[in-house]
Amino acid sequence: MIVSISIVIILVLAVLFIGYSTLWVKFSHIQLGDPASKNVTVVQISDLHGQTHFINGSLSKMVNHVNPDLVMITGDLASTKEQLDKVLKEIRQIKCVHLFFVPGNHERYGLVQSRFQLNSDQDYEAILRSIQDAHINVLSNREYPVYIGDKKLLIYGFDNSLYGKERLTMRVEDLQSFDVIIMLAHSPSIIETSLQQHIPFDLLLVGHTHGGQIRLFGHTIGAYKNYHVGLKRIDKRKHFYINRGLGNSRLLPIRFACSPEIAVFKIGL
């Protein structure tokens, strides 16, 4: 009898822990540069997969609480058009002048009869237009300069929603004229490209892995076990961040010890 009760208690605690891990959003706060100087607040959200509401509130409410100067969205907003409409309605509630987006693989693929298939070029362009219509700057292998005070920031978005699509369309010499360079992509495979091409950046933000969704003893279990989670410093200036994302994959609708994440960066100018 005692053993049976113990098993029930363990199962209940496990269910509660999985529910907490799946639906409680963790804020990751990162300071880059001199905290005593003027700071710009950058928020990264990624891999929503249609998820906009959590135990600790709606997406827009949580982001607005941080009062961001820049919001970066690194792909995979939704799996269906109905989800996309809901997500964009929520993002419109975010109070930030500068919102940026790079496409993920789930913008390239659509769900048809419970199976994913590559969207037509027309459908893909329609998805990007709907995102732009929500006052979000879509960066698909292009740059966007932002001026904060007397500082020049460059936001550059790579399209690696399909492997081999990413391109740097600026000269490295032109990049170096900016005070801060923030680069966005969906897949962490971009780090290899950036290092091979000696691309300068201060912060490179990606998603895609979901942190594996299942972590044991601080290690990712499954397909993305060779990727780190969170921040990695490459050298004195370069920082590379892999976001755990907010939603879950269709094949694995739960998380374990890998909470959804909103990353908040304070970058000294």
Itemize the secondary structure elements and their pairings.
Blueprint: H1 2-23, E1 26-32, E2 39-45, E3 53-54, E4 57-58, H2 59-66, E5 70-73, H3 81-91, E6 98-101, H4 105-108, E7 109-112, E8 115-118, H5 121-133, E9 137-138, E10 142-148, E11 151-157, H6 172-175, E12 180-184, H7 190-196, E13 203-206, E14 215-216, E15 219-220, E16 230-233, E17 239-242, E18 261-268
Parallel strand pairs: 1-18, 2-5, 5-6, 6-9, 11-12, 12-13, 13-17
Antiparallel strand pairs: 2-18, 3-4, 7-8, 10-11, 14-15, 16-17
Protein name: Calcineurin-like phosphoesterase domain-containing protein
InterPro entries: Calcineurin-like_PHP, Metallo-depent_PP-like, Metallophosphoesterase_sf
Transmembrane segments: 6-25
Keywords:
Purple Acid Phosphatase, chain A, domain 2; Calcineurin-like phosphoesterase domain-containing protein; 269 residues; 6-stranded mixed β-sheet; 29% strand; single chain; alpha/beta
- The largest sheet has its strands arranged as 1-18-2-5-6-9
Apparent shape: globular
Radius of gyration: 19 Å
Low-confidence stretches: none
Number of strands: 18
Query: Please, what is the average pLDDT?
Result: 93
CATH superfamily annotation: Metallo-dependent phosphatases
CATH architecture label:
4-Layer Sandwich
Helical residue percent? 25-40%
Alpha-beta content class: alpha/beta
- Estimate what percentage of residues fall within beta strands: 25-35%
Q: What name does CATH use for the topology?
A: Purple Acid Phosphatase, chain A, domain 2
Helix and strand element order = HEEEEHEHEHEEHEEEHEHEEEEEE
Protein name: Calcineurin-like phosphoesterase domain-containing protein
Keywords: Membrane, Transmembrane, Transmembrane helix
InterPro entries: Calcineurin-like_PHP (IPR004843), Metallo-depent_PP-like (IPR029052), Metallophosphoesterase_sf (IPR051158)
Pfam family, one: Metallophos
